[in-house]
Amino acid sequence: MGLNTSAEAPLPVGQVSRLIGGWIERLGQVWVEGQITQLSRRPGAGVVFLTLRDPSHDISVSVTCFRQVYDEVADVVSEGARVVLLAKPEWYAPRGQLSLRATEIRPVGIGELLARLERLKRSLAAEGLFALERKKPLPFLPQLVGLVVGRASAAERDVLENARRRWPAVRFEVRNVAVQGVHAVPQVVRAVKELDAMDEVDVIIVARGGGSVEDLLPFSDEEVVRAVAAARTPVVSAIGHEPDSPLLDLVADLRASTPTDAAKKVVPDVGEELERVRQLQGRGLRAVSSLLDREERGLAHALARPVFVHPQRMVELREDELDALLARSRRTLGHLLDRADSELAHTLARVVALSPAATLERGYAVLQRADGHVVRSPQEVSAREVLRARVAEGTFSVEVSPADAPDTTEAPDATDAPQAPDTTDTTDATDATDAPQAPGSADAAEAEASQ
What we know:
The protein has about 450 residues and is an alpha/beta fold. About 45% of the residues lie in helices and about 20% in strands. The chain contains 14 helices and 13 strands. Strands 1-2-3-5-4 form a five-stranded mixed β-barrel. A five-stranded parallel β-sheet has the order 7-6-8-9-10, sandwiched between helices. Strand 6, helix 4 and strand 7 form a beta-alpha-beta unit. The longest helix is centred in the C-terminal third of the chain and has 43 residues. The protein is rod-shaped and about 200 Å long.
């Protein structure tokens, strides 16, 4: 208001109130939507007093209108109805109170409400709040169930009784709230947030009985929908009856057709679970028995095979084969040995026949000089030369007599001159040494010759 004031020069209350009223008087008319929470029609009074409240917030404002303005909609407008009115702000200076002076009141019809809900539904769906991938699974056996429900309502009784009848040990954390009217939205939002903040709460049920579209509007409010979407704990919506479909059903992790159905879906039935356990036990027993019977039949079939009935039969067959192979190898080895023995005997006979020892056995001798050279011709020796004579039984020394020594001046041709018997024997022995020898005789002859 641009006034210069100070602690020494303050403004009176009345002047401040009048200044505020003058500023508000300059405001124009505005269309306002809300819900009528209080209605006062005094007999004979020309003014009707209303209290208009925001359905989503704990904010209200006083409204006055002339009786003829209200009488035009008196048949369709009452406490709890949602209306749209054209009003001008007014300031009542004596009390410092703000109010609205309504000049026109229009009830909000069902069709318009449904159209608004449809627009809100499309907007929230576009944000992904209704997507299936956001749905959280419910726990199999919740230890603590959060319940948001009207105080002493049939919905509360249905949920508690049916849940405890199904599982007596289940526990509940109940939050009683207003489920219709102007206080429903803030109380439901606060209850959901409180239960979601409790770590021991496993699942939250928001339940309400049936009602009109206007009665169920709080559960289609955007603030409620966003609070449920932001909850970490799985939320079950159990609003109204089967035909009712508030937006809370779309954002919740599970929709139940009724509060009783919510109790059945959240809490398992102990009798059904025990019966299921018995059925599973029976199935397990039958499966194990069938498996054992099948394996027993397989084992019996395997044991009936000849290899198990007469296990030694395989060894016996192999034993016979081994005996046959052993006999065959022995015969083959015997034939090889016999053939080798025969060949060895023939070879030995040939060696013995050609051996110098055999020649020596017949009376021949081999003469060797001192250097081991075999005497082949008389011209190779000189008078008085000592030679070594080798006979069959051993060796001995001989001396060449002067009379027997050859004449070196006129030596006849060795090939034409007659040879002494010993010389002839030496030649025969030398030829015998070039022939193959028997293993024993040849080695001995070579050893003796080397000496």
